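PROTOCOL LOG
Step 1. Enter all chains and additional molecules of the complex.
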Amino acid sequence: MKDFSKYNTKELWNNDLKHNMHPFTDFSSFKKEGSLIMAESEGAYVFDTDGRKYLDGIAGLWCVNIGYGNEEMGQAMLDQTRRIPYYSSFGHLTTPPAVELSTKLASLAPKSLSHVFYGTGGSMSNDTAVRMVHFYFNRIGKPNKKQIITRTDGYHGSTYLSMTLTGVEYDHIGFDLAPDLVHRVSAPNVYRRPAGMTVPEYCDFLVNEVEQKILSIGPENVAMFVAEPIAGAGGVLVPPEGYHQRVAAVCKKYGVFILSDEVVTAFGRLGEMFSSEKIFGFTPDIITCAKGLTSGYIPLSANMISDEIYDVISVPQAEGASFTHGFTYSGHPVSCAVGLKNIEIMERMDLCGHVREVGKYFENQLIEKLSNLPLVGDVRGSHFMMCIESVANKETKELLDPNIAIGNRIADKCQAVGLLVRPLAHKNILSPPLTLSVAEVDFIVSTLHKAIIDVQDDLVKEGLW
Ligand code: PMP
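Step 2. Run joint prediction.
Step 3. Record the structure below.
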């Protein structure tokens, strides 16, 4: 039995408000409403300090792939902490878990990506990718080849550089971006593609846009194209069939590297350890991953780097210039031990196989049960990465007034009956732990169905719809 009497919710709530500055927070509502304080967890469930239980339809933040409360993960942390809790991997140093995890990751990633560089989060790894590629082009005598192309609604992190890569405009409001570096092309938003365009025509349009963008900047100036296989925080945008393969061919034609940001899509969310090659049929030059790498039990991220890039970066130089990039916690032994254990658990449970079956059922059930609701414009995604987009009008796809905060209303209704879904403006995002049972999937689908109908009724009652 979990003991919640040890938590003083009111005191925690007040001190949180006073001292804990939260990321990505609307302080106007935060200062009124404060925080929901999560204190305990088990399987697919989290519990707040008052003992209320929620099925976590978000897996923390697309993270907790193997589910909560896994004792083996705690044991792996303890064992490694007792052996050696920290050592640097700068220069010629390393630790057994860092070596073993690198070897394992190299065996899971596309064959040509056999080198691993560690960080502690997706933003950091995307920053690393840009610095590495710039270093590469400096070394091969192409110092002008530095420009980066990313997509609107792509999310790549919130350090200065990774937020500059990020194309979600809302996230830029009030902040600055790194100048003269990043160029944007359209995100593949099939639902909101230009009227009258078929999906294959839309794909032609998107691929052509990438090519034209490279040509307009000048291929000799373009270093890299950055994209998520399925854009996550931008609204779970599944590209048209063949999109990634065709974009990869364009990039190859002009000597432009591809960074596939698999921070969300790696480690099983779509039913494969890495999705770029196995699901989308293209081989990037760098893959970044984080989150599911340790199921969020401890911070760890990784760049999988191609032999082509590594071979240039690692050439000894007569003048002694070395690769001066890295972090105190690169290859942290406890994080790497947890990553290894996480992968071992995933493989033992055949979690990818489970996702291909139950995740597909989740996808199909959401589409089947929710698509026809009047408020629902689109249900999209793949396996355990899904999004519901609400609209005022199904035919015109017109959005509701943002002040209605439709995503929040749906999330609040779900939360009241023990389900967490993520509101993002007029969208709700679902990214549950990958261990969900069929019964848990059915609970999510029926709870959402009722929540959306209740919200529709409320809007009618309030004269808003
Ligand atoms: N890339 C993607 C695709 C992400 O979804 C995120 C975070 N949600 C990041 C990068 C940034 O990762 P982090 O927050 O760990 O820095």
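Step 4. Note key features.
The radius of gyration is 22 Å.
The pocket of 4'-deoxy-4'-aminopyridoxal-5'-phosphate is lined by residues 121-123, 126, 155-157, 228, 232-233, 261, 263-264, 290 (CB under 6 Å).
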